[in-house]
Amino acid sequence: MASYEIQWKHSAEKDLRGIDKQFISRILEAINSLSDDPFPSKHRKLQGSESSYRIRIGDYRVIYQVDNDKRIIVIYHVRHRKDIYRK
């Protein structure tokens, strides 16, 4: 199975800069593992969306979309669980 390409939105990069450095390596490791398996056992599909998912990494959540045809994963947000679903 070929790997998926991971693309970062500017919003996700900005979110990552605001996270405490002790959590960043664990978050990046989980995101990089999505390239091999975009649907890990702990992923959840977001309600009201065709292709948006989230994974949990401790108290942080990663919101991403998967394009199976182009084999691309787009990371939209990386935020603390208390902030991720606020608009």
Question: How would you characterize the overall build of this protein?
Answer:
The chain is of the alpha+beta class and 87 residues long. It has one domain: RelE-like (YaeB-like fold, 2-Layer Sandwich). The protein is built from two helices and five strands. The protein has a five-stranded mixed β-sheet with strand order 1-5-4-3-2. The chain is globular, with a radius of gyration of 12 Å. The model has no long low-confidence stretch (mean pLDDT 92).
Short summary of the structure?
The chain is α+β, with helices and mostly antiparallel strands and 87 residues long. It contains two helices and five strands. The longest helix has 13 residues, at 21-33.
Keywords:
alpha+beta, 87 residues, single chain, YaeB-like fold, five-stranded mixed sheet
What secondary-structure arrangement, pairings included, does this model have?
Layout: E1 5-8, H1 10-17, H2 21-33, E2 44-45, E3 52-57, E4 60-67, E5 72-80
Parallel strand pairs: 1-5
Antiparallel strand pairs: 2-3, 3-4, 4-5
User: In the residues, how many domains can be counted?
Assistant: 1
Spatial extent as radius of gyration: 12 Å
| Proportion in helices | 10-25%
Q: Please tally the β strands and state the result.
A: 5
What general form does the structure show? globular
Helical segment count: 2
Percent of residues in beta strands: 25-35%
The neighbouring-strand order within the major sheet is 1-5-4-3-2
CATH class: Alpha Beta
Average of pLDDT: 92
Q: Which regions contain 5 or more consecutive residues with pLDDT less than 50?
A: none
CATH architecture: 2-Layer Sandwich
Could you name the CATH topology? YaeB-like fold
Q: What separation lies between the terminal Cα atoms?
A: 36 Å
Largest sheet: 5 strands, mixed
SSE sequence, one letter per element? EHHEEEE
CATH 4th-level superfamily: RelE-like
Q: Report the structural category.
A: alpha+beta
